[in-house]
Design brief:
By secondary structure, this protein is of the alpha/beta class. It is built from 12 helices and 12 strands. It has a domain at 251-322. Helix 5 crosses helix 7.
């Protein structure tokens, strides 16, 4: 089966006069139809920036400095998204119709002055030849599909009238309105309580199976990703530091950072062991450490090699990769 999306050696930087600060460095991953890739890491790891580049949504001041993002349509040749003009017709045609995104905070993404139904109708009519009445009928169907009670009433309401879980469901309905083949979920449950989070995750998994969508699920919660992802990529300070089948990575993590994230969770820590705490924070992009980027926080720091040599990606087992001098 062909990859739906393939990202190869993607690097993104932010310009500061004549100096470009690297924010993402040489990241590679792929997603097939019906597959879920989980991307995990702390804030500042480059998760969202890497995923947003797929939709041509690199923030102002940012630029893709190298690499490619290849999207495979249902028919025809693959398209390199990095070669498309920013905000041009070609990328706008892909965005929404072929590739959709659910953002972390729906209140920042939903319009406060248009009803939920009107916003879905606008998205539908941008990409499909539908009358206003047909688009509204489809919007109500979508709201019903994502589990909204009284979808016709919800369609006439505004974002501030809905609960957090309902707003997120409305965002999902909008993202699915044009039946995208790839769905990017950027921390879609961060602002939700545990019960609502479980409901939204269950809904996403069901919709993915129903439509055979590829899905990228971004989260700082590695435990949550373990429940839904076929493969996982762990990021730290703009680099992919470990990746592979979710079962392999979580059962036999090869990078100290992955182990530290897992040891902080009751479900993964050894029975009776005290939960570990990962000290410090992800460094500022302008203060990137020499050698291994993680070495100042690493509990397994092994001396000069970690401090001075940047580790390359190493093969741990078949399709399980880690960027660590100590991967063995």
């Amino acid at each position: 089966m062909k990859d739906l999306i393939r990202v190869d050696e993607l690097s993104i930087g932010f310009g500061l006069k004549n100096w470009v600060i690297p924010a993402v460095e040489g990241v590679s991953f792929s997603v097939k139809p019906g597959e879920t890739l989980g991307i995990v890491g702390e804030s500042g790891s480059g998760k969202s920036l890497s995923a947003r580049a797929i939709l041509g949504l690199v923030p102002p001041g940012g630029l893709i400095t190298s690499g490619s993002i290849s999207y495979q349509p249902e028919s025809g040749d693959a398209v390199d998204i990095t070669s498309l003009p920013k905000n041009g017709r070609a990328i706008r045609k892909l965005r929404g119709a072929e590739i959709a995104m659910i953002f972390q905070e729906p209140m920042a993404s939903l319009s406060p002055v248009h009803t939920i139904g009107n916003q879905i109708v606008t998205t539908l009519r941008q990409h499909a030849d539908l009358s206003a009445a047909a688009a509204l009928s489809r919007a109500i169907e979508l709201l019903d599909q994502v589990g909204m009670a009284s979808p016709a009433i919800i369609a006439g309401q505004y974002a501030h009238q809905l609960s957090g879980g309902m707003r997120q469901r409305a965002m999902i309905a909008m993202a699915l309105s044009c039946s995208p083949r790839l769905l990017v979920c950027d921390e879609p449950t961060t602002a939700l309580d545990a019960t609502t989070e479980a409901q939204v995750v269950e809904l996403l998994m069901k919709l993915q199976q129903d439509f055979n969508m590829g899905m990228i699920f971004i989260s700082h919660n590695i435990g949550l990703v373990s429940e839904i992802a076929d493969r996982v990529m762990v990021m730290y300070l703009g680099q992919s530091i470990e990746s592979g089948a979710t079962e392999h990575v979580l059962k036999s993590p090869a990078h100290p950072y992955t182990r530290a994230l897992l040891n902080a969770l009751p479900a993964f820590a050894e029975a009776g062991a005290e939960l570990a705490t990962l000290q410090g924070a992800v460094p500022d992009l302008t203060a990137r450490p020499t050698g291994c980027s993680f070495h100042p926080r690493c509990a397994e720091f092994a001396g000069p090699q970690c401090e001075t040599e940047r580790p390359a990606i190493q093969v741990v087992t078949n399709q399980h990769l880690a960027r660590c001098h100590l991967h063995e």
